[in-house]
Write a structure and sequence with these properties.
Elements lengths: L1 H8 L2 H10 L5 H12 L2 H12 L4 H11 L7 H11 L3 H14 L5 H10 L3 H13 L3
Helix pairs in contact: 1-3, 2-3, 3-5, 5-7, 6-7, 7-9, 8-9
Length: about 140
């Protein structure tokens, strides 16, 4: 109920608290923060670039998880930026999985470059699958 009230408020103070909760060791609190962000696409958008560039790879993964249902026009661009720039294979793998669902032809070349950059079998599999799912 508290979380619902916070998402109704959805002000900058709430967003700052949610960002802090993404760094929590409490799994339930982190998951609730992710779900709350998904309900606040207009408030999440201004902090998304910072979350996707956070020094902590777990926070970057959580940020990609937020993008999963954010319904924001920049979701694909944010995901492409992740796979183009992030050095952490798990962050990129999370982004590739989502690009396979929401990506357009614009993601095809970045996916190919990612596949060339990481030799890990999962990245190879995930990028191939994403490329098959993306039409164009």
């Amino acid at each position: 109920m508290i979380l619902t009230s916070l998402t109704v408020l959805g002000d900058d103070t709430v967003v700052a608290a949610l960002v802090g909760w993404l760094r929590s060791e409490d799994v339930v609190l982190r998951n609730e923060a992710i779900e709350a962000f998904k309900q606040l696409p207009d408030k999440a958008a201004p902090v998304m670039s910072g979350l996707l560039a956070d020094p902590d790879p777990d926070v970057r993964i959580f940020a990609v998880n937020i993008l999963e249902s954010l319904r924001h026009p920049d979701v694909e661009a944010w995901l492409i930026a992740v796979i183009e720039r992030d050095a952490h294979v798990n962050v990129c793998a999370t982004a590739v999985d989502l690009l396979g669902e929401v990506g357009t032809a614009a993601a095809r070349e970045p996916l190919r470059r990612l596949s060339a950059r990481f030799a890990e079998p999962y990245i190879q599999f995930a990028t191939e699958l994403a490329l098959k799912r993306i039409k164009g």
